[in-house]
Design a protein that fits this description.
Peroxidase, domain 1, 4 strands, two-stranded antiparallel sheet, mainly alpha, binds 2-acetamido-2-deoxy-beta-D-glucopyranose, 2 domains, binds protoporphyrin IX containing FE, single chain
């Protein structure tokens, strides 16, 4: 009797400890869902959904990449970017044209059908982005899972996102605040190897850079002429422009972004600065001449996916990725 009682007390104390030190109780793992959904493979369910969406729209890859960046960079990878609401992150101006919400909803519906309340929306973002990257020519990297979903999403948090005209040193600082190194940042900005921006994000570089009345002197003159045609002054539409200006690979995840910025063909100011600033240019040149961009990009995405995650007993598994679960004890959270 006495022995089983003390065993119970030790076990209870141990349990309290594990809960307090959330870190070691619920760290991210590769294959967290393995064997947790009967005979179904959670990662496979997500992959099939992403494939079916990709066949209809290949631009889901840039959409999901940007979605993961914004989710992880604002308040950690907790799916807070998915929450609807009048003052949520989604509504903040830096969200701009973040897309891909429907792909996450479809994958969530599919995993809920197989195993209700098992798979977090935060993990679906990371798995789905990985799948889309590999469908667009990038490498298929293994992802860590075991994230929980957060319960808070505030528009004001989205202001921690860097602006496209930020300096390399400020961008390095912003990534350092997320424990990401300069090299991580340079690889992650390689996400701009796919997808689009709009004239309004770089119009100043074409006509009136830093109020000089002249274009950005670092821009390739051939590209300048072409972008001026796409983005005339006083245009009524904000036209889309490929971030990777190599027409052969603007829809492919590859290292060509680095070759382009070395030809002074970066569209966003920060992208061009990456190839010119002494803090980053040697790394850019090394990546441009390397053959392992896909692997390194995947590793950087895994690192991005580990920023400020909720695990173990923290957070929750949302029923719908667009809203937090209702909790009758805390009605003010709804
Ligand atoms: C200093 C950091 C960054 C800045 C300032 C930045 C800025 C921007 C801007 C201004 C756009 C265009 C938005 C629009 O025109 O609607 C964009 C698009 C995009 N960004 Fe970034 N970004 C950064 C980092 C990243 C990272 C780390 C990733 C992913 C790993 C990423 C992935 C993308 C993708 C894929 C698009 C295209 C989206 C689409 O086609 O829908 N960005 N980014
Ligand atoms: C993103 O921000 C813009 C500008 O504030 C807003 O008009 C738009 O509705 C937001 N996007 C979403 C999905 O809420
Ligand atoms: C960065 O790492 C430190 C030390 O491990 C940790 O305390 C901090 O919470 C981390 N910050 C982020 C944003 O992950
Ligand atoms: C500008 O881009 C063209 C390709 O359009 C390239 O041939 C040329 O070398 C680039 N100029 C510079 C200064 O890199």
């Amino acid at each position: 009797m006495a022995i089983s009682k003390s065993v119970a007390i030790v076990a209870a104390i141990g349990f309290i400890f594990m809960n307090l030190s959330g870190q070691c109780y619920g760290a991210l793992q590769f294959g967290f869902y393995n064997g947790k959904c009967g005979t179904s493979d959670v990662e496979d369910i997500v992959r099939k959904t992403v494939i079916s969406k990709f066949l209809l729209d290949k631009t889901i890859t840039p959409a999901l990449l940007r979605l993961q960046f914004h989710d992880c960079f604002v308040n950690g990878c907790d799916a807070s970017i998915l929450l609807d609401g009048s003052n949520s992150e989604k509504t903040a101006p830096p969200n701009l044209s973040v897309r891909g919400y429907d792909v996450i909803d479809a994958a969530k519906t599919a995993v809920e059908r197989a195993c209700p309340r098992l798979v977090s929306c935060a993990d679906i973002i990371v798995m789905g982005t990985r799948d889309a990257v590999s469908l667009s020519g990038g490498g298929r990297y293994n992802v860590q899972t075991g994230r929980k979903d957060g319960r808070v999403s505030l528009a004001q948090n989205a202001f921690s996102l860097p602006s496209p005209s930020t300096s390399v040193s400020s961008a390095i600082q912003a990534f350092a605040r997320k424990n990401l190194t300069t090299t991580d940042m340079i690889y992650l900005l390689g996400g701009h190897t796919i997808g689009i921006t709009h004239c309004s994000f770089f119009q100043d570089r074409l006509y009136n850079f830093k109020n000089t009345g002249r274009p950005d002197p670092t821009m390739n003159v051939t590209m300048l002429a072409s972008l001026r045609r796409t983005c005339p002054q006083n245009a009524r539409v904000d036209a889309p422009v490929n971030l990777d200006q190599n027409p052969m690979s603007s829809a492919v995840v590859d290292k060509s972004f680095y070759n382009q910025i070395m030809l002074r063909r970066g569209v966003l100011e920060i992208d061009q600065k990456l190839a010119l600033d002494s803090l980053s240019k040697s790394t850019v040149a090394a990546i441009a001449g390397s053959s392992d961009f896909n692997t390194k990009f995947g590793q950087a995405m895994v690192k991005l996916g580990a920023t400020q995650v909720l695990t173990g007993t923290q957070g929750e598994i949302r029923r719908s990725c667009r809203s937090v679960n209702s909790q009758t004890l805390f009605p003010f959270f709804n």
